Each structure stands twice: as C-alpha cells, then as structure tokens.
Amino acid sequence: MFNIESYRKAGSVAEAVRLLRENPLARLIAGGTDVLVKLRKNQEGFHHLVDIHDIAELKCITRTADGDLVIGAGSCFTAVAESPLIRRYVPVLAQAVRTIGGPQVRNMATIGGNLCNGVPSADSAPPLLALNAVLTIEGGAGPRQMPLEDFFQGPGRVALEQHEVLTAISVARDNYAGYYGHYDKYAMRAAMDIATIGCAAVCRLEDGRLQDLRLAFATAAPVPIRCKATEDRVRGRRISPELLDDIARAVTKDLQPRTSWRATKEFRLQIIATLAHRGVRQAILEAGGSIA
Ligand SMILES: Cc1cc2nc3c(=O)[nH]c(=O)nc-3n(C[C@H](O)[C@H](O)[C@H](O)COP(=O)(O)OP(=O)(O)OC[C@H]3O[C@@H](n4cnc5c(N)ncnc54)[C@H](O)[C@@H]3O)c2cc1C
User: Fold this and answer.
1) Nearest residue CA, atom 41 of ligand 1?
2) Residue with CA at minimum distance from ligand 1 atom 40
C-alpha cells in the first residue's frame, strides 16, 4: 500500500511542532488529498508523517471584535463554503472553493493544505490574494505573520520551514468591507478538474468609478499571482465597456503563462483575457454598478 515509515498523530499545534522538530524527515498530513496522491506515486519526502487532521484549534472560522476574518488552516472546503461568515463577508472565497474537486474531496481537503502544497493551480489562492490575506505560522518560537503574496516561492515551494505549521489565514476588515468579487475557473471538465486558468476579481466602486480593483490568477504563472500593473492602470477610472476591454488587454501584458499538456500559452492568454473581462464585469454588477 503506502510506503509510510512513521506516522504520528498530533493533538495540538504545539505537539505537531514538537513531533516535526523530533524527526527532520517528517512532513505534515492534513486532509491527505495531495499527500496520499504523492505517496501513491511513491514520491520522495512523505514517508514520515505527522497528522494534524483532527486538531480542533485549526478548524475555527471566526470574526474578531475589529471585524477581521480568521480562517483556521485546518478548515475543510465544505466548512469554508458553508460558513455563514465567509458567505456573508467574502462570498468570492466560498465561490472559489466550491469549484474544487468533488464533495468527497471538499469534505477532506483543507484550505491550509491547498496553500502549503504550493501549486500554481490552487483555487483558494486567487481570492485570498485579492483579499490581501495574511498567514499565521507557528514554529515553536511564537506565531509569525506573512502576507500570502510572499508565501509562494515557486512551483511546489512555499516559505515554510520543515518544523512549521500554518495555523490561520486572516482577512482584515478593510480588505473586504465594501468590496464585491467573482471567481471563475476554466478547466477541461466542468467538475473534478484542476484549473487551466482561475481568476478572482474583487472591486469597490464609488460614483460610477472603479475606486479599487484587485485581480489574481491561478495557473497563469509559476505561482498564484496578482496583476498589480493592470490594477494600477485602471484604478479610479469611470466604468464603461471600454474599461473592461482595456482590463482584458492589460492582463495579457501582465502575465506570462506557459504552454503545458493542458493548454498552449496562446490559449491561456485568450482565457485570461476572457475571465478578466467576465470577472470584473460580474464583480461590478455584484457591487450594484452598471456598465453602460
Ligand atoms: C480528485 C482530486 C481533485 C482535486 N481538485 C482540486 C481542484 O479542483 N482545485 C484545487 O485547488 N485542488 C484540487 N485538488 C488538490 C487538493 O485537494 C488540495 O490542494 C487540498 O486543498 C490539499 O489539502 P489537504 O488538507 O488534503 O492537504 P494534504 O494533502 O494533507 O497536504 C498538502 C501539503 O500541504 C502541507 N500541509 C497541509 N496542511 C498544512 C499546514 N497547516 N501547515 C503546513 N503545511 C501543511 C502538507 O505537508 C503537504 O505538503 C484535488 C485533489 C484530488 C485528489
């Protein structure tokens, strides 16, 4: 079956950190929907496991007195999609995680695992990037914080030490209040498929103008990525069909997707332009704006 040489189950974050420190070969397993796939392929690196799946402190989704949202890294996608707080304050995240795998996968797979796996196709990453999410990481010397934007280092690589645990993902109130968003994913199949391109658009309007826009993509670069140049180019502009066309053009200059067995670079650029146009349009309509 799986070539597992050691397996320890942690009852708390502190215990997980201790077990990781005791065995430098050990890696975390949460929902196992990536780890078990790697083990089945006998991929190196996962023969010593520390299981964090049942740590209750990692499964809370809360809102602080200041209105900041805090999502436990061990929250499964079904819990995230069904959370009244997520649905009310950041529905774009619920929309994105509902596109992940199928019900069985969503019941097991965690939002922390999705980020820590470090793949460019992680569907939870674009909405969280567009919401300026901040990560809390525990390694035994007290929690440290890091903007999600600085977390992705390359395909499969994230800014985590071997003994560290991602404990929470936070979205500050100022980053979601008054914002409306839309997530769209192009994949070869309508379900149970990895994104060929995923796009999150989050905007805030004022007097018929785009007061702020945040755009982020999956599988459009070696890591999930924001389109800062496009955002800066259109911030403050009056909403019009020409604005959407301009955004669709600008993002294809902002991103350099690669060709893979799923799609050519040219096809990806076409999808990127289409999803950006559609996503911003939908976010503006969600915000009560009109495109005349
Ligand atoms: C059939 C199928 C369909 C899928 N479809 C999609 C899809 O449509 N979109 C998509 O984005 N993904 C998809 N996935 C991938 C996968 O489900 C997700 O990436 C999932 O979020 C991984 O979470 P997990 O809890 O299962 O992680 P695990 O497999 O347990 O761990 C993944 C990695 O993260 C590390 N890790 C996990 N939790 C932590 C933590 N708290 N702190 C530090 N490191 C941690 C582990 O050590 C490991 O390296 C699919 C997978 C399958 C099997």
Assistant:
1) 166
2) 166
Could you tell me the pLDDT band of residue 43, with boundaries at 50, 70 and 90?
confident
Q: Is the pLDDT of residue 191 over 90?
A: no
What distance in angstroms lies between residue 194's CA and the mean position of ligand 1's atoms? 12
pLDDT for residue 42 is more than 90:
no
Question: Which region, left, alpha or beta, applies to residue 259 given φ > 0 means left and ψ of -120 to 50 means alpha?
Answer: beta
Note the pTM of the prediction, 2 decimals.
Answer: 0.98
Q: Confirm or reject: Cβ of 30 under 6 Å from ligand 1.
A: yes
The alpha carbon of 32 and the centre of ligand 1 are apart by a number of angstroms equal to 7
What mean pLDDT do residues 150-174 have? 98
Q: Please give the Cα distance from 30 to 210 (Å, whole number).
A: 40
- Assigned superfamily of 179-286: CO dehydrogenase flavoprotein, C-terminal domain (3.30.390.50)
The answer to whether the CB of 198 is under 6 A from ligand 1 is: no
At 292 the pLDDT is 77
Ligand 1 atom closest to residue 28's alpha carbon, by position in its atom list: 47
Q: Which residue carries 């669709």 as its tokens?
A: 248
Q: Which residue has the tokens 């500050």?
A: 172
Ligand 1 contact via 254 beta carbon (within 6 Å): no
Q: Is 67 helix (H, G, I), strand (E, B) or coil?
A: coil
CATH level 3 topology of 56-174: 3.30.465
> Domain residues of the chain, as ranges?
6-51, 56-174, 179-286
> For ligand 1, what atom is nearest to the CA of residue 124?
11
Atom of ligand 1 nearest to the CA of 77: 21
**For atom 19 of ligand 1, which residue has the closest CA?**
114
DSSP class of 143: -
pLDDT at site 190: 87
CATH of 6-51, one of 3.40.640.10, 3.50.50.60, 3.30.43.10, 1.10.10.10: 3.30.43.10
Q: Report CA-CA distances (Å) from 138 to 33, 51, 116, 228, 232.
A: 22, 16, 14, 29, 34
